[in-house]
Amino acid sequence: MQRIGVFVCHCGTNIAATVDVKKVVEMALAEPGVVHAEDYQYMCSEVGQEKIQNAIREKNLGGVVVCSCSPRMHETTFRNAAQKAGLNPYMVEIANIREHCSWIHKDVKEATEKAVILMRAAVAKVNLNTPLKAGESRVTKRALVIGGGIAGIQTALDIAEAGYPVDIVEKTPSIGGRMSQLDKTFPTLDCSSCILTPKMVDASAHPNITLYTYSEVEKVSGFVGDFTVDIRKKARSVDMSKCTGCGVCQEKCPSKKIPSEFNRGLSNRTAIYTPFAQAIPNVPVIDRENCIKFKTGKCGVCSKVCQAGAIDYNQKDEIITEKYGAIVVATGFDMIKLDKYDEYAYSQSKDVITSLELERIMNAAGPTSGHLERLSDGKAPKEIVFIQCVGSRCADDRGKSYCSKICCMYTAKHAMLIRDKYPDVNVTVFYIDVRTPGKNFDEFYRRAVEEYGVNYIKGQVGKVIPQPNGKLLVQGADLIDNKQILKEADMVVLAAAIEPNPDVRKIATMLTASIDTNNFLTEAHAKLRPVESPTAGIFLSGVCQGPKDIPETVSQAGAAAVKAIGLLAKDKLLTNPCTAHSDELLSNGCSQCAHVCPYGAITYEERQVNDHGIREVRRIAVVNDALCQGCGACTVTCPSGAMDLQGFSNRQIQAEVDAICL
Amino acid sequence: MKYSYYPGCTLKNKAQDLDHYARVSAQALGFELEEISEWQCCGGVYPLGTDEIATKLSSVRALNEAKEKGQELVTLCSACHHVIKRVNDDMKHVADIRTKANNYMQLDEPYAGETNVLHFLEVLRDRVGFDVLKEKVTNPLTGKKIGAYYGCLLLRPGKVMAFDNPENPKIMEDFIRAIGAEPVIYPYRNECCGGYISLKDNELAAGMCRKIEDSAAGFGADMLITACPLCMYNLNKNGNEALPVYYFTELLAEALGVKGV
């Protein structure tokens, strides 16, 4: 029997308001083996930690139970404190009486009863704990960045500048991401390309950065410090080492009617294409689905006109396997589809467009060469209506519950740019609230209203009604004037909500990184660890974690880089000693554990055993400590009970269950 | 194929055409509408009071009779369809209403929303199929430009009615294509005609009807079709005479060559 100390935390009122902490202490003292119990307001504070350390020394404790918050929050804190007082850190157990108890219950009597039960289970477990020693694993000093938008580029540049090699994997043919589609950026109205393209060039020229464009992450294995990743380099059908980027192939390609992804379908591209003029790398790809050569076998024009002989129709996808110490996710966003918002007539009228489409229209390199015109008839609009929060802050399940955060500012930007360039055009904005928290943001919005005369109407639009004469009738409410508004417009611009790139689910699954109901990647702690995933070694950059504008994205990208650099700077990492082991006398070599192991940590060997005097060679399961992540799948699968997890042994779990149920 | 059929009061009086042409068309298409026995008025308006039971019982009786026969329940009038479909949803999902209604009804077996309610248009789309309908058309209405007028009752609330996309429906347009005519899509096709407001403030309803008809005519419609007797009444009373309004079943019967039957 261990000599056990129990420490009950109030967590201010977080626990103490719902759980009678004195009662938990009193009940703890009645548990077998418990020689010390006390409560304190903040056990995680320096004073609280000292209380634990003093008790360990004075009472010669062999085991410690802290009744407090989730072990995800402070298990490490208390283990470190115990270690400093001479106790093996794995002799500390946490009873989670906050998230699992006080936060989810209201009734003090019931919550106290449950807290006591949780405390008992932890005491029962710690009684069977044995000292464990963490091993060491090496750190591969190379980082992977998934996504080549501004977030990925910034993270990669920062890591590369610190001296570590970084690979960027980008799904599309070029890096640049959403920012490359933007015309101007708020709140300073500088040209998006002018500030982005130098960074794209830096990323491609940096000796520590390798770009894998037109590539996707296919498989991830391993763990923090030692990930192994398969990258599928999709066949470009163009030899990157030969192509000079002259562009003749694109001029001559006869398949010219493919909607351009870069211009949001507002213009067409050829089957062999670079998405935009400043693309990096400046090497086209052949879109095989739309290429006549690939569809019919006839054509081959690009190959004939290519002076460099770079066209290679036989190129195959290539799988590159590389090891990484850290992985940064920077998969970005897209705008939601508007098929659930037919009242705004997006699918019915060409003159109802999204803000990103307007961005392309306003851009000198866009489908209208920067001229503001109606897509239906090419005429210059005189009345433009902007509708905010299309699918954002949505109360039902048609849209997103969250605020997309960037729309208020980019709409103010669009309104201002239009009024500046075309002073005879009237601009009206329908809004729920105007949200402009950010440096120089509110000033920017006020300029749109005060200097540029943009007409802001607080209220939502119910319907956009295409008229037989080609105009659009906007039916909305003015909540301040308390009246219905019917406004004739030539163009309507929808601020569609943004959502995480749809691929992120697949990537999060590969990385075992958690994701929320909106498909945003979850941070390890909403306030204190905002750029780390709860999965060790995975970092978050940009909108994949939540809606962000460019300045915020760049700050977060830098923060993610710093976290990754902090990891790569270490030579060795302590490994989790809670790994599985097989009992050679019980293992019957049935392979069931190997089938369920997600990490490929279990192999088999023929081994001479001495089973109570019977000497024979048996096939026995062997666990590779370096690969085992301690998930416990094998221990519950093993039919003979040969598999056991250190720190969570079958006996320990059984003791916890007994303490709760008996 | 046999369906239980709930005609509703209006179809026995003002809207006899809607009923008659549906029956002859059904025969031509090879299915039968079996009028349920002793049906009562649906109430005309779905009662929004959460403790209102009495006005829902007529729907429950009709629904239960179809259940006992093991048939789907077909309606034609938009208002009846709206009321019966929503009451059925209540019986399926709202325990309080289900208990109270069943306590009152004293059925052999309690009713819990088992019957599937179909509008006649849904029968054409989902049971007959517009492609099959197209094949059975003997007298295609080629060259006619028809505006579908949905009104509000068939479409909303979208989740309960589950009829079509309430903001951009297409079932009536597909129907128009199937009978060989050309649908005219206009933005007011899913707006309210004014409904019962015409009794209290006719000018308000008239304004709404004019918007609908002007928009349809502006986009080139020669005529409108509807499934709703009340919409028909309002549009005829208030609208412009150059734009005739027909029940969709009349054009269906015409296209199937059974209008004179």
Question: What distinguishing features does this structure have?
Answer:
heterodimer, A: 662 residues, alpha/beta, FAD/NAD(P)-binding domain, 5 domains, globular, B: 261 residues, four-stranded parallel β-sheet, 12 helices, 46% helix
Please give the count of helices of chain A.
18
Low-confidence stretches of chain B: none
Task: State the name of the first-level CATH class of the largest domain in chain B.
Answer: Alpha Beta
CATH architecture of the largest domain in chain A: 3-Layer(bba) Sandwich
Summing up helix and strand content along with how strands pair, one would put the structural category of chain A as: alpha/beta
Question: Looking at the chains present, what oligomeric state does this protein adopt?
Answer: heterodimer
Shape of chain B: globular
* Mean pLDDT across residues of chain A: 96
What's the CATH topology label of the largest domain in chain B? Rossmann fold
* Main sheet attributes: strand count, strand direction, barrel closure of chain B: 4 strands, parallel
Q: How large, in whole angstroms, is the Cα Rg of chain B?
A: 18 Å
Distance between the termini of chain B: 21 Å
Strand order of the largest sheet of chain A: 10-7-6-18-29
Q: Mind telling me the CATH class of the largest domain in chain A?
A: Alpha Beta
Tally of discrete structural domains of chain B: 2
- Mean pLDDT rating of chain B: 95
